[in-house]
Structures are given as C-alpha cells and as structure tokens.
Amino acid sequence: MKNSLKRIYLDTSAYVKHFSPEPSSEAVDKLLELCEEGRVSIVMSYWAINEAIAALDRKFRRRETTLQERNQAIATILAETSRLAAEGKLVIIPVTQENVSNSLRYVVEKHLSAGDALHLFSAILGLCSIFVATDQFLLKAAKE
C-alpha cells in the first residue's frame, strides 16, 4: 500500500452498507471500488467487523432479513474484509487495551459512546484525512 494514498476511515455505520443495501450504499460501494483499484486506502477498527455482524443480526431479529440472507452477509463480510486486508488494501486497527484506554478521552471530552470513541481514536491512529459515518454526532466530533 502506498503511503501517498488518501486514507479514509469507515465507521461501522458506513461499512455495513456495502453488505446490506441501505440509503447511501452506493457511496460506500464507490469508496470500496476505489480501494480495490488502489486509488485510496481504507482504514477501520477491527471492532467494526463485530458491530457490522451485530447490525445484521439485529435486522434478522426484526425480521427485516431471512436467516439465509443474514448468514450470507456475515460470510461475505468476513471473507471480503480478510481478502482486502491480506491484499494490503484495507488497514485494520486492532482493538487493544492501549487503544481502548487512549480512546476514553473522547468519551469524556466529546461525549461519545465507547464504540464511537474507539472508532475516532482508530481513525486518528490510522492517520486518516477523511472519516465516513452516518452518525452526525460522531461526524461532528471527528471534525473537531
């Protein structure tokens, strides 16, 4: 992966759209297409994978998707994420005790949830110049 590539952080709310069509899915699909082409570098926290799978399971529990659709989407997330990371096109920031500890300041200073604070810290750690999410409160905190 080239250091000169623009680094874009994908929050779970954005990443999951690629695997479960929703409003704004096309924009996320385009970012991942640019990533595949080697034109941008996508960064995300490993925590986003867990959150994305939980979001898909929530849709299943609400009867918005079938069991087969949920399971296929989960398998696709795991396979595609692993492939992109192995190819060096996706940077996954690990969830470590140090990263969680360092993210706590954003809980207190920006009043973010623990998960959102971890995403914000991961974006900073990943040297991202763009932060993509659907949560306006989180986006505001990221801009500051």
UniProtKB/TrEMBL annotation:
- From which lineage does this chain's organism come? Archaea, Nitrososphaerota, Candidatus Wolframiiraptoraceae, Candidatus Terraquivivens
Transmembrane stretches, start-end: 120-139
Domain of life of the organism in this record?
Archaea
Keywords from the named record: Membrane, Transmembrane, Transmembrane helix
Which Pfam families does this entry report, sorted A to Z?
Answer: PIN
Keyword Glycosyltransferase listed: no
Which organism encodes this protein? Candidatus Terraquivivens tikiterensis
- Domain named PIN is located at 8-140
**Keyword Transcription regulation attributed:** no
Q: What is the protein name for this chain?
A: PIN domain-containing protein
